Amino acid sequence: MKLLDKILEANGKFVKPGAFPPLPKNPQKQFAIFTCMDTRLVEFLEPAMGIKRGDAKVIKNAGNTLVDALHGGVIRSLVAAIFMLGVEEIFVIGHRDCGMASVDPDELRRRMLARGIDPQIIEDYVPDLSRWIGAFSCPEQNVAAVTGKIRRNPLIPKDVPIHGLIFCPDDGHLDLLVNGYDQVKEK
Ligand SMILES: [Zn+2]
Predict the structure, then answer these.
(1) Which CATH number fits domain 26-101+136-183: 1.10.287.110, 3.40.50.1110, 3.40.1050.10, 3.40.640.10?
(2) Which residues of 48-61 are buried (b: 16+ CB within 10 A; e: fewer)?
């Protein structure tokens, strides 16, 4: 059985009419999380933070990086979360052993070429492949940099705290790097 069929079969067993009471789309705890797409964080980061389904907006990408710090997709999601969906605080959460901390742009290019991607396309669309893929060397530095970029973004209100934390995908521990309350302007 192919993966798609397995997923659809699992879904057929999962859905039970009336089993899931409807939740409001605004987060019950008024905050957003921006974190990594790492599979080890799924069903692990949220309980490690004491939150559950319906509590927070969760934005994910590879390495919780902010490649377009002014108006990219992450900022777009945060603006929607703050102005439309009741989000009042932002948590940027990187994690130890992040795959994006070891991305080699040259190896990435080689693999893209090997899979048939036209080198001219790479040159035209993503000439600075390293910057575009968001490669970084240290997850802690990346969280600090991303937290600062969001803080400085003129579309983000100055009274929204931007916290920066590092998560351990093995034992679930969170370390605080940036306390966003230190930087907000008092309301
Ligand atoms: Zn990661």
Answers:
(1) 3.40.1050.10
(2) bbebeeebbbbbbb
